[in-house]
Design a protein that fits this description.
The chain is of the alpha+beta class. Helix content is 20%, strand content 36%. The protein has one helix and five strands. A five-stranded mixed β-sheet has the order 3-2-1-4-5, with helices on one face. The longest helix has 15 residues. It is globular, with a radius of gyration of 13 Å. The protein starts with 5 loop residues before the first strand and ends in a 10-residue tail after the last strand.
Length: 74
């Protein structure tokens, strides 16, 4: 199974926020805070990356909940 990232993005209809996995809407929320929390839980469950987008659509934060290649044991 390929790992798909979670993206918390503004809803295209202009009202609320969506969490998308592989381009598919997994959840819709009225507030960004609620969407971020649910997106975090989805990303933890999938052990993948969580990208949080701002109102302009640009990525404003990113968290890794899986096998982060930067965490190389010394």
């Amino acid at each position: 199974m390929s790992r798909k990232e979670v993206h918390t993005v503004p809803h295209k209809g202009g009202s609320g926020w969506d969490n998308k996995v592989g381009g598919k809407v997994e959840s819709h929320h009225h507030t960004q805070a609620a969407a971020i929390e649910k997106g975090r839980r989805i990303a933890i469950n999938l052990e993948t990356e969580h990208y949080i987008h701002g109102t302009n659509g640009a990525v404003r934060d990113k968290n890794s909940y899986g096998n982060d290649p930067r965490n190389i044991p010394g």
